[in-house]
Amino acid sequence: MGKENREIPRSSKMEGPRQEGGAERQEKEPRHEPRFTVFLIRHGQSEEDKTKPNRGLTDLGKRQVLATMHEILEELRQESTRLEEVEFHLRDSGTERTLQQVWEEHRALLQAGVPEQNIVLPKAVLEYRGIDSSEAGPGIARRLKGVQGLDTTPEFRKKLRSKEYQEQLGASSDVEAWALAPEEHVPSGVETRTQMQERYEKDLATAERVINYKIGKHPKRVIVIANAHASIATLAAASEFSIPLDRLMKNIGEVPEAEGLRYDFYGAGSTHNTTPVGQKLREAVEALKSV
After folding, report:
1. Of 15, 110, 132, 177, which is the most buried if we count CB atoms within 10 A?
2. Are residues 65 and 157 located together in one domain of the fold?
3. Cβ-contact 33, 81 below 8 angstroms
4. What is the distance between the alpha carbons of residues 230 and 122, in angstroms, rounded to a whole number?
């Protein structure tokens, strides 16, 4: 499925297809800078031992994160965005690897000339780095979590990691096996695809309401970089681009490391636009949407 871990040359232009109906909206709505943008990014390559709860990023994973940050910042510059006037909010999903990822993103923003006072970090990251966390931003880790309940069902997790079971489903990872397995195979207490889809839609609707309220109150443009688990990033891509989850995963597997989605919000009365972030995901979306 072309999911080998390697660095991918990245285009600086994110020109992936819009979600269904997005192109039509883009023609009808005036082209203006979004007031609020969210990047939902999967973590970079992490250590191989998935039984290790606090596994971190590998050196390659850190380079992948920096490459994605370069792509994001170049895209913003091409849109004539003055980075020093933007407020950046960085978010983790409560794991060691996303805590490390936030710190790499923080470093990239400083190197790009973003003032320290314009970067809002979550409390967990500041505590992770041994820094005073009294002025930290809110945590949203629960909204970025992967499949709920897997940690409490070790037998099912073992089954998902079984190469034999993965081969039966045409999967190559435990997350992909979960996504492709019949929902009746998922034990009680473990989140199904349908339940994750409902969680995603509920969280997105909540975020949109909050964002539309804040747009009218906040003087600066806000950009959030939310670092998430592979499963929620993959389901979000399938949902936003109207691609069945099984088709997306059979084409590309999970959303590739350090790739994801960009959501642009323009305010009340306007729908958000979504585009893929990262070369592999862009190519997969283009291929599947053209079928």
Report:
1. 177
2. no
3. yes
4. 20
Rounded Cα distance, 272 and 263, in Å: 6
**If you search the block for the tokens 């009680």, which residue do you land on?**
188
The rounded distance, in Å, linking the Cα atoms of 245 and 265 is 24
Nearest to residue 97, comparing CAs of 161, 156, 48, 38? 48
Q: Into how many domains does the chain fold?
A: 2
Q: d(Cα 235, Cα 242) in Å, to the nearest integer?
A: 10
Asked if 50 and 157 sit in the same domain, the reply is no
Q: pLDDT tens, 134-158? A: 554 444 444 557 888 888 899 999 9
Whole-angstrom distance, CA of residue 277 vs CA of residue 291: 21
pTM of the model: 0.79
CA 205 centroid distance within chain: 17
Q: Which domain holds residue 249?
A: 22-146+193-289
User: What are residue 248's DSSP bridge partners?
Assistant: none
Return the amino acid letter for 45: Q
Residues 176 and 212 grouped into a single domain: no
